[in-house]
Amino acid sequence: MTAIMPISFLLNGRPVRLDVAPGRRALDVLREDLGLIATREGCGSGECGACTVLVDGETRLSCLMLAVQLDGRKVTTAEGLGSPASPHPLQTAFAEHGAVQCGYCSPGMTLAAAALLARNPSPCRAEVREALAGNLCRCTGYVKIVDAVMAAAETMRDEDDRP
Ligand code: FES
Ligand code: FES
Questions:
Q1: Which ligand has the minimum distance to the alpha carbon of residue 43?
Q2: What's residue 47's pLDDT?
Q3: Of the bound ligands, which one is closest to the alpha carbon of residue 45?
Q4: Domain 5-80 has CATH 3.10.20.30
Q5: pLDDT tens-digit readout, 117-139
Q6: 61 CB less than 6 Å from ligand 1?
Q7: DSSP string for residues in 26-75
């Protein structure tokens, strides 16, 4: 019989507690148990970045994490960045710049960009490309994605400057 382990963590700002089998991946628990399907499974082997989440503000590949590793952590998925009714500036910029094509990579891209902008609010294009290097998009040449991140960075700086 497989032991079940209780875990609790802060998910998109809300406390979550659930029981998981020790071998289950964080990606599956987020999608299947918690219904947060913006976190995608692409390769399932750490190559594509589609499953990116933020754990304590750092990008992590949820296909390579066990759910038990989320215990006690602060976890953010794309749903926690913003919603259709109240999108994050990155999500708005991705839509406005045509950076969302099939959209499969977009949640991971926006989370990787959010982590970058949290530590560097004024990145150059090369720094954006470097931050997104682990997130593969098969649809574009990345120009629109970099454009979107640069635009969102500007929007967020403007918002921060507001009295
Ligand atoms: S699904 Fe995790 S890196 Fe591709
Ligand atoms: S928009 Fe299709 S893989 Fe990125």
A1: 1
A2: 97
A3: 1
A4: yes
A5: 999 999 999 999 999 999 999 98
A6: yes
A7: HHHIIIIIT--TTS--SSSSSSS-TTEEEETTEEEETTSSBGGGGTT-EE
